[in-house]
Structure formats: C-alpha cells, structure tokens
Please model this.
Amino acid sequence: MATSWDGLGKDARRLEADIDAKLAAFSRATAALSSIRSTALGAPASGVSTATASGDAGRRRTAGAPNGSAAPDGFATAEHICTEVEGLLSRLAAAVDSMSRVQSATGSSAVGGGGGASRYMVARHADILRDYTTEFQRTQRALVAAREAADGLAGARAELLGGGAGGGGPSTVAGGLYAERSSLSAASAGADAALNAGAALREDLERQRQTFASMVARMDAVGERVPGINRLIGQIRRKRKRDVMVMALVVATLVFLTGLWKLA
Model:
C-alpha cells in the first residue's frame, strides 16, 4: 500500500470503486436467494400433497425443488463475494487509518490542500467506509437468514416426506407448523425493515453532523490562512464612512452657499 498522501488517496478511491461493484453483485446474489426462500416457504402444502398422491417419484421431484443444484451454487457464489468484500473493506479501513495518521503527523505542509481540506478528505472517506460497512452487514444478515431458512425448510420437507412414505401422510399439525413458520418469517422481516430504517436515519443524522463539523473546520482553516481579511474589511468600512462624511460636508456647504445667494 502507498504511504504518501496522494498514493493513499488513489488507493482509497480505487478500493471504493471495487467495493461498490462487489456490493452490487453481493446484493443481487442475496436477493435471488431470498426470492428462492420466499417461493419455497410459500408452497409447502402443494409439494407434500404431490408426494403423497404420486408415490416415490413425486417425493423425489418435491424434495429436489426448493434446494436443488441452483441454490447451493448460489450460496457458494454469494459467500465467495462476501469474503471478497470483507477483504476490500479491511483494506479500505487500513487506507483511511493511514490517511488520518499522515494528516495528523504532517499537517498541511505535506498534503497539498491545507489542513481543513485534508481533514475534510479523511472524513469523507471515513463516511464512505461507514456506509459500505453498514450496507455489507445488512446484506450479510439477509444471506444468513436465507441460508438458515433453506436449511430448515429442506430438513422439514425431508421429515414430512419421510412420514408420508410410511403410509400415514402429512399431518395437520405439520401443516400448522409450516404456517406458523411463515408467519414468524414475515414478522422477522418486518422487524428487520424497521430496525434498518432506524439505523439509516441515525446514520443520516451522524453524516449531517460530520458535514457541519467539516464546514466549521474549513472556515477555521480559511481564517488561519488569511488572517488579514478582517483588517482589510475594517479599512474598507472606515474609508466608506470617511467618504460619506466628506460628501455630506460638501452637500451642506453647497446648500448653505445657495441659501446666502438667494438672500442676497
């Protein structure tokens, strides 16, 4: 990894572009797996009845539907992308930390943009890292939920289909358990959505606070770089007041002379 300020900035921008592309692919893969999970949770009863009516051939078709060859491949791809994103986030965090150390150690002399500008650049990359980390964690939780749902659904289907092979058929209690599982999954998804909305609002408020802090820092930096601005403004104001006084004196003199001329 580069150690100069410019090199660290280039590394951070390149890592941010790589993370953005990988996160998009990770989200698409997880969304596809979540849709497979929803489809499988929505059709337990029809699969069991097909197995009971058609015998061993129907059971083989139903058991292969929710967790066929496509789902394991999809999970493997998503987990591989997850590992890559984790590595990229770690590298970006190291780059941001290095930029912060360089900025703190050398100040404005080695970063080429002034103390305020360098602090703003570090804060901007830190905000981007925080956003990417939050999005990655949210997608990772969705992937874990899809994996758990797929594993649990496959096990439950195997038990039900095994019971049907003994001649007794699927029980009403098992159907009720499936319905309860679907309800719990829907409630869990709603709670996750509410928590994610609250977390997003909190992150927006923190981002606004950091933006205002960076603006104040930049104003302070401008004041430090140009200490004579206030003095120049004061001189301009004093000159304007003097000009106004001179103009008022000239006008009063002319009015007085005009009055004397008319009286004479």
User: Anything to note?
Assistant: Helices lie at 5-41, 44-54, 56-64, 70-106, 114-165, 172-225, 229-263. Residues 43-70, 164-170 have pLDDT under 50 and may be disordered.
